[in-house]
Amino acid sequence: MIGVGTFLQDQIIYTVHFLDEDRIVGCREEEVIAGDAPWAPSRFEAREKVIAGRSFSLRGEVVAEKGCIGEVIRVIRDMPEGVHYHVNFPGYMLCIPETSLEPLPKPVNRRKLTEADEEEPAA
């Protein structure tokens, strides 16, 4: 790390120099780990949208239904049970194991209609 600053007044940004690549990159606080910390690969990163793979409850009350969309706030790589995430579901911040989350489906690429497409009669 060679510097620190802020972005939008509330996000800490570190300037990191990757010596092997001779590349300087700005990284948010949640994207930086200690150089000697073990690396645990994860399926998701901070700020990614995810889908609840099952329903989650607190004190017997379901607070996030299966299929509900949430946002990863922090990746927790040092849990004994494996990678977990702090996920913001509407109204609740939950600590969720990686195995209980699914990625959002890929967006559908739409092609532009040509004049020939517009002239074809509907069947």
UniProtKB/TrEMBL annotation:
Pfam families: NifZ. Keywords: Nitrogen fixation. GO terms for biological process: nitrogen fixation. This is NifZ domain protein. The lineage of its organism: unclassified sequences, metagenomes, ecological metagenomes.
